[in-house]
Amino acid sequence: MLSRSGASHAAHGLRLRGAVSCAAFGCPYQGDVSSDSVADAVRRLRDPGCDEIDIADTIGVTTPRHVQSVMQRAMAELPVARLSGHFHDAYGQALANIHASLQVGVTIFHAAIAGLGGCPYAKGATANVATEDVLYMMHGLGIHTGIDLDAVVDAGRFISRERGLSAASRAGNALAARRA
Q1: Backbone angles phi and psi of 98, in degrees to 5
Q2: Which of 42, 53, 73, 115 is the most exposed place for a label (fewest CB within 10 A)?
């Protein structure tokens, strides 16, 4: 992608990340979204120079088989090393969807400590998948993340306490209880 000066973002040491959000797996307004629509959006983000493209289930409605279908279609447009997954946990499917993505080769995922966040635009679209839960699963699968799970659990408990919330991470809560 060229800046106003004509130089690319890469020439300035910048990486450009785009996202196919809401309209990747399901939309609160239009309903189901076809894999071809996602592929078209990936192309439209790839062509101007996005280095990484997020395929996001921002309302948390998808399931593992659908995730694999969409990710494989997106991989026809962009190398898998440049795709990432972003899953919300409204229906409790985020970890299963991450695992399904791993099975087709996706290795970059977004998560939020203590499951903070969510989509304020769609009814029932609750929190992001908790980083603690993702790390616990990854470590259980033998995937080295280089991230200290105990430190993330402590951070999640701290921020939840400061915000007056209960930590949404199942793994974080269980690990904290076991340490207590």
Answers
A1: -65, -45
A2: 73
Number of CB atoms found within 10 A of residue 159's CB: 15
Count of residues for the chain?
180
- Residue 163: strand, helix, or coil: helix
In 3D space, the residue among 85, 14, 78 whose CA is nearest the CA of residue 46 turns out to be 78
- How many whole angstroms separate alpha carbon 110 and alpha carbon 131? 8
**Is the separation of the CB atoms in 60 and 125 below 8 Å?**
yes
pTM: 0.90
Say if residues 104 and 75 touch (Cβ distance below 8 Å). yes
Please give the chain's pLDDT, 180 residues, in tens: 444 444 577 777 888 999 998 779 988 788 888 999 999 999 999 998 999 999 999 888 899 999 999 999 999 999 999 999 999 988 899 999 999 999 999 999 999 999 887 766 666 667 789 999 999 999 999 999 999 999 999 999 999 999 998 888 999 999 999 998
Tokens 């962009």, located at residue: 78
Active site residues: 119
Query: N- to C-terminal Cα distance for the chain?
Result: 51
Q: In the chain, what is the greatest distance between 2 CA atoms, to the nearest angstrom? A: 57
